Records
---
Amino acid sequence: MIETKLAVKGMTCGGCVRSVERVLTALPGVTRVEVSLELASATVQHDEARSGKAELARAVQEAGFEAA
Ligand code: 9UX
């Protein structure tokens, strides 16, 4: 289990935060998600053998946001 912090650009309201939380929480091996509008970030605890950093970023991008 590791913790990854992604920079997420493009979130402008609480609905965006919930969207990002939802797509990250849905990934296999994700056990904790904290998304901050103010910090433009998503902090995720995950089993990297099931979902790695690239999968996290891709899920956020597919939801319509920039992630790095
Ligand atoms: Mo808020 Mo985000 O109405 O795409 S959900 S701006």
Note: The two ends are 20 Å apart (CA to CA).
---
Amino acid sequence: MDTPADPFAGGALRVASYAALRVVDGTITHRGSYDELRALAPGDEVVDLTDGLVLPGFVDTHVHFPQVRIIGGLGMPLLDWLEHCALPEEARLADRDYAAGVAADFVRGLVSSGTTTALVFGSHFPAAVDTLFAEAERVGLRVTSGLVVSDRLLRDELLTDPERCHKESLELARRWHGVGRSRYAVTPRFTLSCSDELMAACGAVASEVEGARVTSHVNENPREIETVAQLSGGGHYVDTYDRHGLLGPATVLAHNVHPTDAELALLAERGGSVAHCPTSNAALGSGLFPLARHLAHGVRVALGSDVGAGTGFSLLKEGLQAYFAQQLLGERGHPLTSTHLLHLATAAGADALGLAEQVGDLSVGKRFDAQWLRPAPGSPLDVGLRHARDAEDALGRLFALGTPGDVARVWIDGEPVAGG
Ligand code: GUN
Ligand code: ZN
């Protein structure tokens, strides 16, 4: 199953039962029946994936590398959670060996959950960012990441200055941008922790690294938004990025739970994307994501796990929570089908990351980034799938009941990266 046609624009779920894909050097070259493809290529190795579901690999558009070991810190709103849960752990990544261990946990967490592409919030420490890129390269993950920068209001050891930011970011981009599947993302943490001078340095890096992506946070929590308004002297939160050239088609801003209409209009005009992170929004009590308003303005939206405020790596869980949030909004919510959820977790993410020509669905010409979901016989998911009315119903059961434990195998560029 996949979603090559956008269901938010009327597209339907694509289902191919007992079908075959031919993959040559990591690219899907044919789709058809098994007999057709066997006749076409009688010498090919056959990988039998009957008795399960094959989906495109998930695309996580917002996830924090240094936070894998603190998932599940409940009971605090954003700024308290940062101070007491996230930032003490992030400071530990000053130690390169510690960072390397975290990178291994992190990349394993992603791929074992069916995620094959991710836009990753890196670390404040360049050597730690190196360990992330190195581990992603070793495993094969399609990663976009970079040095996280801040110069105010966080603990001292996480702060930098504009000159150092510029120098260290360019060094990392030189080492990793465009190398294999890795790309660089300019990453100011959020306006609360970044002065105008630091944002300007980020803007300079973004313009000097051709094809660089940009990512940050926006409009997540009322106290955060109020502090940003006080610090930035007029204008709105989205403008604090835009005025430094940090908002464009290559930008992904996470959360945007409390936008004004003017901010949504500017996001749409610039072609920026929003990473919707529903388990994080629920866990930190940030609020219910106004999806209908984003869609009405034409803002591109995809899914992010936001580990570690988010409660796990699985975009199945994020999809289900995205559905819940729209239900809870009542008339202000946008009703979501399982097809919408799959699209948000795959093709929409590929589009937000500028990778739609390579990944996001299983069309001919795309890279074979895929996952095989195969629940244990007799498990609730197995029972549900066997009794589903149709494919879309089966997909709903998968979002409701599926976990990383159901991900039997994962491929990136046709190569197995996790599972048997
Ligand atoms: N805003 C700034 N930093 C963070 C973070 O680490 N997590 C979340 N959810 N929001 C942030
Ligand atoms: Zn985040």
Note: Residues 58-352 form a domain with the TIM Barrel fold (CATH 3.20.20.140).
